[in-house]
Amino acid sequence: MKASAKAHTNIALIKYWGKRDESLILPMNNSLSLTLDGFYTTTTVDFRESLTEDSFYLNDQLVSGVEYERVTSFLDLIRKYAGKPNLFAEVHSTNYVPTAAGFASSASGFAALATAAAKSLGLKISDEELSILTRQGSGSACRSIYGGFVEWEKGDRSDGSDSYAIQVAPANHWDIRVAAVVLSSSAKKVLSREGMKRTVDTSAYYSSWVESIPDDLSNIKEGIKNRDFAKVGEIAEANCLRMHATTLAANPPFTYWRDTTLAVMQTVQELRENGVSAYFTIDAGPNVKVLYLPENEETIQSTLREIPGVDDVIASRAGQGVSYI
Ligand code: PMV
């Protein structure tokens, strides 16, 4: 049966940084994100008896190599789960995530793939099970199953059966906006997988990072519940800075920041000094995401666009969870 699904990417306000199990993708810490409606992936999966291997098309191009391997290993997992280990699929994906925006398309990509694949195999699974499956394709993707504010519970079990995402508040709870600030040169040097491993293994600050999470989480959830923008923004910004501090204390040390990354961070702090409420967060790359409220949309957009080295500013609202199309 052929099935199509759509999934949005998400931005972490409390970061997932570090795995306790590399192959099952089990995190060291809980994380919390906002699903974004501006950036998404649509995927069609067709499992057919007549196929002898999987094929994967991304934006109409046949994909091979590492990207193809990641998709087939994920399909292996889902085939096994469905008890149909010898059934292969044709997969067509379209990414509506501008690569330059610095959002990993893997979050929306694996959430859409898991949802369409499960449906194509006729699996009747709960969102919780879908999140568990998706997690094994890409960690942060397990949060994209849900819309709005989403927490990924790290879980305690070694088989990962309690490591999945849950919704904290739906997208319509609060109209909070995120601007993706695209820098002119933004090639990522240390992949998130590698960066996490190096920090867990060597960073002198890693244990402090893990210890700081429970307070951040309970405070940000209270802030979200009360729609307290300053509280949510302050916690998200500080959490991001702490995550990036772990990379500086790694061996060998590294950072995802460039000069323009710092320029954007400083501009956001200046905006606040001038009474415009805005906060930044940064993932495993040089681009910056800025959180703001709708009434400041124009000021935020025009101020960020003026920074030398900034190519584009792409705004997004809170988005919905996965859906069938
Ligand atoms: O799931 P991955 O491997 O793309 O890692 C995501 C890591 C961060 O983006 C830095 C943080 C997060 O929670 O999304």
Proportion of residues in helical segments: 25-40%
Q: Measure the end-to-end span.
A: 14 Å
In the CATH scheme, what's the topology name of the largest domain?
Ribosomal Protein S5, domain 2
How many β-strand runs?
14
What low-confidence regions span 5 or more consecutive residues with pLDDT below 50?
A: none
Q: Biggest sheet, in brief?
A: 8 strands, mixed
Give the C-level CATH assignment of the largest domain: Alpha Beta
The CATH architecture classification of the largest domain is 2-Layer Sandwich
- Provide the number of structural domains: 2
Keywords: ATP-binding, Lipid biosynthesis, Lipid metabolism, Lyase, Nucleotide-binding
Organism: Virgibacillus subterraneus
Family: Belongs to the diphosphomevalonate decarboxylase family.
Enzyme class: lyase
Q: Can you describe this structure?
A:
With 325 residues, the protein is α+β, with helices and mostly antiparallel strands. The chain has two domains: 2-173, Ribosomal Protein S5, domain 2 (2-Layer Sandwich); 177-316, Alpha-Beta Plaits (2-Layer Sandwich). The protein is built from eight helices and 14 strands. It has helices at 65-81, 105-120, 127-135, 192-202, 206-225, 229-248, 259-273, 297-305; strands at 2-14, 19-21, 26-27, 31-48, 55-58, 61-62, 88-96, 149-152, 165-169, 177-183, 278-281, 288-292, 310-316, 323-324. The strands form three sheets. Strands 1, 4, 5, 6, 7, 8, 9 and 14 form an eight-stranded mixed sheet that branches. Strands 11-12-10-13 form a four-stranded antiparallel sheet. Strand 2 (19-21) and strand 3 form a beta hairpin. Helix 1 runs parallel beside helix 2. The chain is globular, with a radius of gyration of 19 Å. The model has no long low-confidence stretch (mean pLDDT 95). The site of (3R)-3-hydroxy-3-methyl-5-(phosphonooxy)pentanoic acid has 13 residues, from helix 4. Belongs to the diphosphomevalonate decarboxylase family. Keywords: ATP-binding, Lipid biosynthesis, Lipid metabolism, Lyase, Nucleotide-binding.
